[in-house]
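Quick entry, no commentary yet.
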Amino acid sequence: MKRVDKIKLWISLIFRIFLVAAAVIAIIKSDWMNLGLSLVTIFLTFLPAIIEKRFKVDFISEFEIVILFFIYASMYLGEIHSFYRRFWWWDIFLHALSGLIIGLIGFLLIYILNKEENVAIKLSPFFVAIFSLSFALAIGVIWEIFEFSMDSFFGFNMQKSGLLDTMWDLIVDAFSGLIVSVSGYFYLKKDTRFFDKLEKKIIKRN
């Protein structure tokens, strides 16, 4: 097992121990809201593995580590430990980070597909950049729907101030995705060696 894979396993284990402890404390205190958040977060930490098994793909470990940190920071620290209320910039920071990560994922996906020899239509760097931005926005919208659903059906308060919170989240997602798409556009026009390395690593894992 590679070193990065071991790091991923240890990080996963530590995060889940914290979450189980939070669930037990929530039961003792009859805090059903935090219990629900803890259980949902535990499930989300298993989501990358579920996707890998269901769709027969193998994510690179670095990507899974980033996803785990994001889930931990948003659900455990943000919701259970009230970082969203304690630090006004926490939500902005997470959405900026997710916009960059998701934009890069979208860019890399279309970059790999666009290099396949049997693809009928080759996209220009401009359209690759547009897809990257659109992908970041689409995932941002799905997340806002998730927050709205949790608030509506389980009584959470993930959207905080409702429409205002949702719109600012989407604006930050768009800005972060735009940074990735514009940077990727100029990078493709000049050099693609960085993406070639990522492509080889992803293909090798799958």
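second:
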Amino acid sequence: MLESLFIYLLIGAAAGTTAGLLGLGGGAVIVPALYMVFSAQNMPAEMIMHMAVGTSLATIIFTSLSSIYTHHQKGAVQWPLVAKLLPSLVLGVVAGSLLADQLSSDLLRILFGLFELLVAAQMMFTLIPEAQKTDQRGVVYSVAGGVTGGVSALMGIGGGSVMVPFLSWCGINMRGAVATSAACGFPLALFGALSFIVLGRGENQNIEWTWGYIYLPALLGILLASIVFARLGAKLAHRVPLLILKRAFAGVLLLIAIKMLWG
């Protein structure tokens, strides 16, 4: 248990540093890392990805609160927009959780690998859609919220990789887009984690320290380290060239994607 906790601390340190440096949610790091660790620990193969995704969503519940508080203090969160997105976000994440429960662990792994490829391309080439000058209709926000929620539940992420480009396309400046996306991350993670707890009941009775599809030792270790290292990453972000960092991390994501696709 102590050895495993040390590994989870390392994962949390990597996820926290990445979040602080690049503003990228920890799920892109946590899910593949947990997949590899759970595989090495000989957890049942049919639920490894479900456990990784569920545990990742549970960590985001807590880590998102700090981010939301910081952005709110700076007045960057557009709360009326968060309220407009909230119903479709919740519906999307619940629907995505139900779909994830029906998919095999191998298929979830492949989908995650493909998603990592898209995120790597976005970071490598700074693929941000051109802003639209016209006001978006409510149905557009509903669709975007539903898609973001569904992707978050399937991939175990906070949704920023989807929501930030969408909000930028809507004409919201990058600062506001990142802050508003961060505020959406808490309800996404909360309802996603709750869904994985309910859906995972009875599936892993032979695994100790689980709560549905959430593995509690991993949750504890990742949280303890990520909170500390997120601050370190934020400080480093002001001292190193972010463009170089983003492209370097895009290369890391590419390797992760290949590993996940290869299995």
